[in-house]
Amino acid sequence: MKRTKSKPTRRHAQTQPHKQEPTKLPFIAHVYELRKRLFYIAVSVGLFGISAAGVQTQLTDLLLKPANGQQFIYTSPGGGFDFVFKLCLYTGIAMSIPVIVYQLVRYLDPLVKKQTMHFIGWLSIWSGIMAGAGIIFAYYVGLPAALNFLLHGFSSEQIKALINIQSYLSFVMIYLLGSALLFQIPLIMIFINKIKPLQPKKLMKLQKWVFLIAFILGAIISPSPDIRNQALLSGPIIIMYEFSVGLIWSINRRQRKPKKVVALLQKDAEIQAERLAKFQQAQQIWQQALQTQPAHNKPAAATTIRRAPLSVRPTGRPNNYLRDFSRQPQRRFVNPA
Q1: DSSP 8-class letter at 337
Q2: I want to staple 304 with a disulfide (CB 3.0 to 4.6 A). Which of 59, 181, 300, 334 is the partner?
Q3: Mind listing the pLDDT tens digit for each residue in 277-310?
Q4: 193 contacts 119 by C-beta, under 8 angstroms
């Protein structure tokens, strides 16, 4: 028996399916995604806050330690509960900062390139490290000096400091937050340098203004006549700025082109400049030759060649070519009748 060839199976019209183009999500989808991220953040803050309530006594002792034995009061029946609630809430927010950063990055992931997201991830990690360093510095160095002056600098036998515990908590939180933001100066300058490269020379010229602003902020945060207390707060600002300039100089130096590439580019620029000079020189010689040439030997312009008589036209071309070239287009007149 003869084997009959089996008919080839029908292939799909499209052997390779086209990649689906990313569809634009409606606005309500972004709202739902944002609501989901905010829900995760709220759950994180709540869990850490509840955990902080279990160690509330230790947190209170840790908070009151920079006051160096100062007595505090609350002036309402619910003042104590309000203090504990705010303490646990602030602790929950502080412990949830990594979760907040992660949820923010996940929300912006579809809109940002992979390389940019990688840069943002490392920037977030270093931001947390620098913020922790700023809080530690403020807690052990800046805050005790400021509280020592503010609580005992104006006291006497008849004047005693009776500080509300809520006011003390707000002051400490603002002070720690300001110190954490102060230590973000290097990262902010690196981020700006990523968008638009900065020049370390220009940044070094701004040092005098940085010193002035640093001592003004030090006098505002710690209004003490002692120059040592002000230097404890102004010094980190100056150090952070100098450290930022050094980082920018190091980053820009690494991103410079190799010496061989720079030499080749410079050589290419010199060749282009030499060619341009020769061209300009030849153009000047040509213009001088035209000026010294008699008027009847000068070549006529393109517009005058078309309308010039045949006797003046340049020779060396067929008469038919000259006749066709100089012929004007005929106008057709339409009888109005």
Answers
A1: -
A2: 300
A3: 888 888 888 888 888 776 555 555 444 444 444 4
A4: no
